[in-house]
Amino acid sequence: MPLIRLLVEYDGTRYGGWQRQTNSNTVQAEIEKAVRRVTGEEVAVVGSGRTDAGVHAAGQVAVFETASDIPPEKFAPALTNYLPEDIAVLESRAAPEDFHPTRHAKRKTYRYRVLNRPVRPALKRGRVWHVYERLDAKAMREAARHFVGEHDFAALTPRSSAAEKMTTVRTVHRCDVCAEGERITIEVEGSGFLYNMVRAIAGTLVDVGAGRFEPGEIPDVLASRDRRRAGRTAPPGGLCLVSVEYDD
After folding, report:
1. Which domains does the chain have, with CATH numbers?
2. Can 52 be counted among the known catalytic residues?
3. Model-level pTM greater than 0.90?
């Protein structure tokens, strides 16, 4: 059957993450319901990765098979019409029959936003991590460079999750920290990420900015493979999956 590739954005605040669950509403389940309403088919929508509960996406990639004769490009508006206001399909197109959004992904980019000021946010609730203590963005940038490259990131994922993986080695191509006034943006690009890894990177960098770690301690933290040695796991609301890149 034809394979349809979707580009999806969503506000993850109300959802238990991307992947379908029995005890929580999820983005995947909402898209599958929309496909059912458009085509009458029960399908499995496969995403490029599992975003956690409360995490947002601007560029999630997903696919599903269909026997419908609806033109591929028409699925985007048709599905969005049946989706909640916090989920939208930006683009739809035909995909090669062997395309897999997870296995064929070459790079993923995540962006984490921190609001660094004494007063809590009113307008950006659920979209930033409010940190009231003054952060040293220069120290955060210095620490961020230690995450770049191929490393064992076991110290940045829960031990239970690390134990389930064949390897906890991942490659980070870029880890940038940009400060503009009260806003600090952390952007991480890599070939793939462990569970909670980007949030743990963000939390550790914030702890560096707050003076709880020195930038030069990061290599030792990674070498320890001990989650207790790294910083906090940042709250999910500040994180957004920006893009997923493929060879095409």
Report:
1. 3-95 (3.30.70.580), 107-245 (3.30.70.660)
2. yes
3. yes
